[in-house]
Fold each of these.
Amino acid sequence: MSDTPSRLLNLLSLLQTPREWPGSELAERLRVSPRTIRRDIDRLRELGYPVRSSMGAEGGYRLVAGTAMPPLLLDDEEAVAIAVGLRAAAGHAVAGIEEASVRALAKVIQVLPSRLRHRVSTVNAATMPLAGDGPTVDPDDLTVLVAASAGAERLRFGYRDGDGTESKRLVEPLRLVHAGRRWYLVAYDNHRDDWRSFRVDRITDPFPTGVRASPRELPAEDAAAFVAGRRSDWGLPTFRMVVTLHAPASRVAGRLGDAPGDVRPIDEHSCLLDSSRDDSLEWLAHRMAMLGCEFEVHEPPQLAEQLRALSARVSRAAG
Amino acid sequence: MSDTPSRLLNLLSLLQTPREWPGSELAERLRVSPRTIRRDIDRLRELGYPVRSSMGAEGGYRLVAGTAMPPLLLDDEEAVAIAVGLRAAAGHAVAGIEEASVRALAKVIQVLPSRLRHRVSTVNAATMPLAGDGPTVDPDDLTVLVAASAGAERLRFGYRDGDGTESKRLVEPLRLVHAGRRWYLVAYDNHRDDWRSFRVDRITDPFPTGVRASPRELPAEDAAAFVAGRRSDWGLPTFRMVVTLHAPASRVAGRLGDAPGDVRPIDEHSCLLDSSRDDSLEWLAHRMAMLGCEFEVHEPPQLAEQLRALSARVSRAAG
DNA sequence: GCCATCTGGGACAGAAACTGACCTACATGG
DNA sequence: CCATGTAGGTCAGTTTCTGTCCCAGATGGC
């Protein structure tokens, strides 16, 4: 309850609250003398956690940004919030950090108290899958796969091949790779006696056997290169769009996310949007549809086509 | 570098990796004797972190789910992934855990090394704002507000009133409240000398003054009740939809998220969807539009109208 | 300008802890 | 049956930690 290491953890936890803590209050909370608190603060600083202190009356301690990430001490609700956010990010593949998202999710899920697990899934109800293209990947499956890869544990799963033929697999997983909006598992197939890359969306019911396998050498520079070499289904074509939006630039900026690309005002009531990133047609189309204002497409022509198809489908649905 | 508390933290960090660690390997990594590792494991268990150990050869230690959340030790990329996920969740208001998301985000942002901050915002580029209704709230603003509230720090910001009149405010923030798909800041306005609830989407450039204010008594049961009493703009009306989807139930399930509501197969090629949750028309419309299959709306009639408007807008845009 | 209130840190003595080096018991898989 | 792993007892020496004295310096309010 009150030995030194646990007290340090508690102190870190208190300091992570975004407020100032006078040393006296910390001392009271942790049931030690103020002098000990000062020493503990010193210790934390030596460990690399930057504790800023403001002098004078009204002063106090607080944890600020440093060079390394301190251990995050979360309460129940915060833990659930993080799990939900990561599930969404991993499942919908936020570009650039997919693999880190899944790793972090695996960490959180591994230690998430069971009473909180069901809350994660129920809350997830409110989320909408973003990726418009192709089947979605179950984030829970992803965490199973990443855990098995990290632990080099043998894995069983069902696999539906490109032809649609189903098979049972027993593999030694190496790594999870994200490429071209898809997840791949690079693993050594024990039945086929060779390396394979599996599309995760075609994997069903992955189940870790609990047996550790000794690492093998992959006949490629790394897992990503292996997938790149094997992959037959190169990702969907991507486009960059140019559209005129009939809404003031200021209003648009807030609704396009953080880096909407290049938004140039034309006049008081309209602006020109040049999405600097490349994205799939479906993504671009939905993004525009959700904007809620009138607009005109200049580039690419395929986007106009996509929008016509969308409009027709929606119109048919409305009857 | 190698005193006891820091070693315990390192040990926790190692055990959070989803794999098995034999005691000897841990001893080597932490530069202590295996006996000390066993003692450390004991200590962690006493602190409430459940370390599972498998006996026999091929055995080892690993951290499993317990009753409390252990401190999360993250590497750079994982930290960024969590921040991105939370930003998305907080900004788009995943129902039910909005306030916890913002609290967690404030914690992460507070200690996130500065070199990682810009990565969070650049990665966010790929995200799409979900909430279709009303202006979006900047997650960064939210973290500033929640930090100031927790620390009882005086706050300055610009405010655009319901009439559109701009004003400068100096307030003592009490709490951030989420109600009816909107964020409100409950605070004591130092110029008006009274309690107010501010809509966060109308707040610009919040800036903490660094001055702590002594807490005042709110003339209401709690902040949520205060907002509920003051709020003139009751949230948007919500609806529950019933639609027929012209796609196999199995294919739809994967693309609707985790709790899509009630999906009942009609035949091999179509199914009936009853969204059990209430949502805004805009949300429902976009959700259907993104589904990518043919569908027919049965309930509510307002949704059909919304879809007709959407279709018309998109059709005009496609030219 | 004074005072209250905070951080920062030195010195010291007694108490508490931590560690490594033994040892044995027990579980597991080949 | 053996190798390899966890589990845990004991012991002695050392280290560390704590509380209680101090006093210096910074800051904001009166």
Note: Residues 128-133 of chain A have pLDDT under 50 and may be disordered.
Amino acid sequence: MVTRGDARREQILYAAMVVFADHGYHRASLAGIAEHVGISQAGLLHHFPTKPRLLTAVLEARDRLDREWLAELDPDGRTGPRLLVNLLRLVDRNRRLGGLVQIYTALAGESVTDDHPARAWFTDRYGRVTASVEAGLLAGADALRPDVDCALLAREVVAVMDGLQLQWLLRPDEVDMVAAFRDYATRLIRSTALDPEPLVALLASAVPVPLPAHAG
Amino acid sequence: MVTRGDARREQILYAAMVVFADHGYHRASLAGIAEHVGISQAGLLHHFPTKPRLLTAVLEARDRLDREWLAELDPDGRTGPRLLVNLLRLVDRNRRLGGLVQIYTALAGESVTDDHPARAWFTDRYGRVTASVEAGLLAGADALRPDVDCALLAREVVAVMDGLQLQWLLRPDEVDMVAAFRDYATRLIRSTALDPEPLVALLASAVPVPLPAHAG
DNA sequence: GTCTATAGGGTGATAGAC
DNA sequence: GTCTATCACCCTATAGAC
């Protein structure tokens, strides 16, 4: 539950999300974030005492958002190859959200450096995300060919989503992540599911309007 | 050709590669790089007048290294699905190189932010890399099923390599990128090549000693 | 809860001696 | 080519008034 007194905090969190996405963590300044909110830098520090703690709060807020999206995307707890249909919808959602997704790519890349304050969080998050995808695959494993390695496959699926996102952020108008992921997921289903064609059809119609590859 | 007078420059380039990889671009300091070389910060600036120009030089040096590796990996200009065997070798090489690969992930993530000095370079590089993979696939397209979209597939392959690398950098001892990429490439060949099994066998023996997934 | 003022640290780049 | 010294800047965080 969110009390009324947290309104300013949420303003700051949102502004910090935007500024971290635009400049990364180390280049973002507290003064810049405070300016977005319309307060002074010292005023900001009243709500979040240090910069790393602001970052932590931002990442936790993103976590909550992610959980809401996943719950909304996957109300029936769909498993096995059908999971890919939900992930395709997630890719499409990320595309429409634009800059707010950038924070992951910008911070994840930055975080691989030695003692980055977000490193533990990302290490953790990848563990949870891949484990969750793996669990989804395992739960529907009876619809998959028996030689599928769900652990390796989970890492692969997450890797494809991240890698496409990086290419898309660098060239949004030339890279169609939805088309690329649909192509990937279709081939993946055909090579791992026991009864692929119904799922392939679902995938083809999962995201309402497939965009042309080079839309202006 | 490299003249003897460039020795110091190369020392600096190497040190910069290491420090950028460890800390990213913005957190790396010229003084820190200079210390690795054993000279002063002002001494460094005699060879590279500004920090962005040092970064550019580092990226260009990595480019040259990459080209040498690719030439060595692919002496016969192998194309089509066989390209994947060479890429698996590249993944293995990256694993063994450790920190020197990190510079790509660290800088690529950082570069998606608005006006990062490496952004244009990465945008360019992804264009070249995906185009080169696509060209390789197209050149061997007669060994592929006719419905394969080489452009989308090229982006996908690059995405898998990048995404796995990020996961591996965050948890080097838990993520086996070679195994994951081999698994991916095997499935990909089976679902796209007209005569997959010889290539699958090649893939299975391509990297001498497959590591156990959770080696200590 | 928000402000101004400032301490205290680090940075990229320049000037000029050797 | 390399150094020391220094400038000018930006940053996080604190102190204390309102």
Note: The mean pLDDT of chain B is 90.
